[in-house]
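pasting for the record
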Amino acid sequence: MERRIIHVDMDAFYASVEMRDNPALRGKPLIIGALPRERGVVATASYEARKYGVHSAMNIREAYRLCPSGIYMHPDFEKYRAVSGKLHGIWDSFATATESIALDEAYLDVTDNTRSWEDACRMAREIKRRTLEELHLTCSVGVAYSKTAAKMASEEKKPDGYFEIPTPEDFVNLILDRDVEVLYTVGKKTAEKLHYAGIRTVRDLRQRQEEVVRLLGKQGQWLVRVAMGDDDREVTEYRPEEAKSISRELTFQEDTDNRAFLREVMLLLAISVERRAGDVQLYGEGVSLKITRGDMKSISRSKMVPATRSASVIWQEACKLLDQVPPGPVRLVGVGLYHMTGEEGRQLTMDDFLPQARERQKEVIQEGLMRLGEHYGLDFAGNLDRIFQGERLYRTVKYMRTHM
């Protein structure tokens, strides 16, 4: 059966939301991410900022070097998630299956909701219209016979674009003489391997298929298929219960080697992980700790535990894992759960049969928050919900750091 897939991608989403809400920002080079004097990267940049060479994931100091006249802002993820929910509400109404890639991007399978290719194209234009009229934001939309082609189509005319790729032949004709980086899964390192072998364009790849497979193995087999216009991947709806891990991490603006402070921060991270796991009704059978040194070297430690999402267990086990890490300046700390399982799949533990054990776990967290509150003059217990909204956790930890 001929499939009809729409790919929707918002244009500079975070920046566009901010410009929508503050007209004074419109037409300005707006960079969302860290501030120029902070550590961090660009989350997104307006198209005006991109003219200076600023792009997502760029080090913020490099962005400032390229665009010193830009307007720099921290992201407001709470606001972006709320807008994303409304966007997906529009998009989901058109599709039988929606695969969300990010807050601002999704694949929509409209095969069963349309009778013809023309119907799918009208639907794609309606998605653009409603997104603009209801939320005052622009998106780029691609309509195609496959996921790879649909994403290619949405990127073809950005921003505020619309493009159609009806058949594999149309797809191949579009990309044949483009760099191999145009193909799905070809990143910088893969492109360098292919370029080094003299395989620079999609046409080269099609002509040297056996060499590509020898060079890249299974990925090479996939690339040969894509270069031929072949992609039968289905639009698969994300289900929270399929998450492999849930974690929360934080980057410090200045390195710290204060272990007591690290444990305090880990307490807040553990509470955040507990809440995220509770939101999707999952438990983890392992606790993980991630440390990034000041020299960017990363250290990971993990330990299997009876299935849990208790902040107390996460925190205490993560602290034990921290004891295994040699002293030294820390740039980033993160804690998490892995080997996720649902209620039905988990093995019951003694805590399930001993209410006093569960109460003791809650007391550990309450006592820890009380100590933090007394130490830093903060009402952790009364304002805990607010602390985990948007960027408040980062600002809270920054305040703690200056009042150690």
